[in-house]
Amino acid sequence: MNHRFSKVMGLSEAVSTFVAPGCHLSIGGFTTSRNPMAAVYEIIRQRIDHLHLYAHSNGQGVDELVGAGCVDRIEIAYAGTGRFAPTCIRFRKAVESRSIQYEDYSNYHMTLRFMAGAMGVPFLPTRSGLGTDIVRKWGFSREMRKADPRIPDDKLMVVDNPFGAWGEAGKLVLVPAINTDVAIIHVQQADIQGTARIEGLTFSDVEQFKAARHVIVTCEELIADDSLKAGADSNQVPHFCVSAVVHVPYGAYPTACYRHYDYDPKYLNAYRKAAQDDSRYAEYLDRFIYGVKDHRELLALQNEADLNAIRADARTGYAVGLDRR
């Protein structure tokens, strides 16, 4: 491997280089799985705000960015962490208090929108959403849309099938492309040039990073040789799409990273209690994010037995016998 083309850098440098106030940002993962949490905490720690955030279905990452006041606008299909918070608590508070602007889509819409951005086309057609309020109800006003050249004038459009009755579809929904300034994903393995491998479900991470101008990859294992390329069919991320590679073991914690560790139910339960109250939430931010230098120090605040309990079983890829209540 030619080390002259290494894209490895520290997380603080990667975030300060590519994530700017007001930028359009997407984060990967799904509810309690493979959220790029170390990067999320670093964004909060650097107090980067006024973000326009996109996600497919996310949970912990979205809620913590919103709760810390980093987000002005969000476009998403679902924000929740399952049994811990069926709807993310700080996200819900922000929507209800109108401190953020919010636009909702279906999961399929968001995937298609990222895919359109990745393909370099302005929209993609689908039947999904026809006849539902998700087409009719808008979170962003038409006036706001027209005033901002970075978002389309319409949320969705319903049009006649240009091929007539072909495909037995008289009408189609057009979903607008998303092209972000930066996407952040967490993966199991990446090499120093940016080639990366996701094990387990990929959610919409592949479409997201292909639709972004810059991509930050955080990884559990940093590979210093060409071994990933020997199994090229198992890699989802080509090196030429990646701007920065950051080695962060437990970088998805407290969410899960398949074959490495499960989500931490104790942390997520404690987070839910803190998120329900503004004072407790401020204390949470001060202790776990602003009060530590980096993700390693956040992990050091956790009970070692709890971290051992979420270690993935080699056969199943998840923690066996974990008390998930």
In short:
By secondary structure, the protein is α/β, with parallel strands linked by helices. The protein is 31% helix and 20% strand. The chain is globular.
Describe, in plain words, how this protein is organized in 3D.
The chain is α/β, with parallel strands linked by helices and 325 residues long. Helices cover 31% and strands 20% of the residues. It contains 13 helices and 13 strands. The strands form three sheets. Strands 1, 2, 4, 6, 10, 11, 12 and 13 form an eight-stranded mixed sheet that branches. A three-stranded antiparallel sheet has the order 7-9-8. A two-stranded parallel ribbon has the order 3-5. Helix 1 (11-18) crosses helix 2 (37-45), helix 2 (37-45) packs parallel to helix 3 and helix 3 (60-67) packs across helix 4. The mean pLDDT is 97.
User: What amount of the residues lies in strands?
Assistant: 15-25%
DSSP summary, beta strand count: 13
- Provide a count of the helices: 13
Structural class: alpha/beta
Tertiary shape: globular
Instruction: Summarize the amount of helix as a percent range.
Output: 25-40%
Overall average pLDDT: 97
Which structural traits does this protein have?
325 residues; alpha/beta; eight-stranded mixed sheet; three-stranded antiparallel sheet; 20% strand
